[in-house]
Write a structure and sequence with these properties.
Elements: H1 21-32, H2 34-37, E1 43-49, H3 54-64, E2 71-77, H4 80-88, E3 94-97, H5 103-109, E4 111-125, E5 135-136, H6 138-145, H7 155-160, E6 172-175, H8 181-193, H9 195-200, E7 213-214, H10 218-227, E8 231-236, H11 237-242, E9 249-251, E10 257-258, H12 262-273, E11 296-304, H13 310-323, H14 326-333, H15 341-352
Parallel strand pairs: 1-2, 1-3, 5-9, 6-7, 6-8
Antiparallel strand pairs: 3-11, 4-8, 4-11, 9-10
Helix pairs in contact: 6-8
Length: 355
């Protein structure tokens, strides 16, 4: 088994992670033990969680680790639910993901979630020869992922795409397995769009998908759809952009078909957060506003509210200050949507209050 710290960019093959507890413990012992054996050289901050923002965390690690050799950051892409579990059990210094913490998780683990970035989950597809871009609605996507709409030329798809010549081929649904942040965001959107989906599946990082085949990581989802004609899946927008995978526009509550972009994802955040800009755990799906992309979300940092190790707490504070300054600029350069300035100001104030 290979173990890696940080990420490979989308499309690059990288090692898979075994979720066996003994292996996870081994990984964390290696990283958390580094200050013991190289105390004079500094602290290695360890985080774990979602693969959704993997490309950005790779860039963040690359840039941050150049600043100060005495404070380094490593991140393990284990999935949102696994990251929450690890930080709750005292492993690592932070976690990351796209699922809002439950009241029990906050209380039992002494945790809070802080918005780190804005993301968009987009429906990606592979239809060779299609002339034009597909339109989707939440209701249509719910019907497909419930297994009710089975072919690409089905009337429900043709109705939203009257100007496209749709092929009579089966839809090959691809989904993420249990514990994934993209599941949480996508199922949240589908639950708001379809009462049947809400009743039968609901919002969860671990939906019981009735049809399709799984793709373990975000990069696996992108690879699978890109290489499988007739397939349909969902992934963070930057995977689709950088791997040149077609992705559709989605109907928002204002009645507009909107494609994910830095502008439309920011519009969704604005629609939910204005005027107070303090709803750190808010859902951004189906946000109001003509320009709002309807499958937007925060990707959060999960943090302990207090620390017993002053040195590690100071190092983590340095990392967080960087994430919410230079890190936001780097995110924009990589195509992501930065936190809007009023929200960023409140996030910085919250971070500064942590001990």
């Amino acid at each position: 088994m290979q173990i890696r710290a940080g990420f490979a960019p989308p499309g690059l093959r990288s090692c898979r992670f075994d979720r066996n507890v003994s292996w996870l413990s081994f990984v964390f012992v290696i990283f958390l033990g580094l200050p013991v054996c190289v105390a004079q050289q500094g602290i290695v901050l360890v985080g774990s969680g979602s693969s959704v923002p993997a490309p950005l965390y790779a860039k963040w690690a690359e840039q941050y680790n150049r600043r100060n050799p005495k404070i380094q950051m490593r991140y393990l892409a284990l999935g949102t639910s696994e990251g929450i579990k690890e930080i709750s059990h005292g492993s690592g210094d932070f976690a990351a993901g796209e699922a809002a913490l439950s009241a029990k998780e906050r209380a039992d683990g002494g945790l809070i979630e802080i918005p780190a970035l804005l993301i968009g989950i987009v429906p990606i597809y592979n239809l060779p020869g299609l002339q034009g871009e597909l339109r989707f609605s939440g209701a249509l996507l719910a019907e497909i992922f419930l297994g009710h709409v089975k072919t690409w030329n089905a009337p429900a798809i043709a109705k939203l795409n009257p100007n496209l010549l749709l092929p009579d081929v089966p839809i090959k649904v691809v989904y993420r397995p249990a514990g994934k942040g993209s599941n949480y965001v996508f199922s949240d959107f589908l639950s708001k769009s379809s009462s049947q989906f809400r009743t039968e599946i609901g919002r969860s990082p671990s939906p019981a998908w009735p049809v399709g085949t799984p793709a373990e990581r975000s990069s696996d989802m992108a690879d699978k759809v890109k290489n499988e004609p007739g397939s349909l899946g969902y992934v963070e927008a930057q995977y689709a952009v950088k791997m040149h995978i077609p992705y559709g526009s989605v109907l928002n509550p204002a009645g507009h078909y909107v494609k994910a972009s830095e502008k439309t994802i920011s519009a969704a955040c604005r629609g939910v957060e204005e005027p107070d800009w303090d709803r750190f755990s808010a859902s951004l799906t189906n946000a109001p506003g003509a320009e709002s992309f309807p499958i937007a979300s925060f990707t959060w940092l999960y943090l302990r509210t207090s620390s017993a190790d002053p040195a590690r707490a100071a190092a983590l504070s340095d990392l967080l200050n960087w994430v919410f300054s230079d890190g936001q600029r780097i995110a924009s350069e990589e195509g992501y949507s930065e936190l809007p300035p009023p929200l960023l100001k409140n996030v910085k104030n919250k971070v500064s209050s942590l001990h």
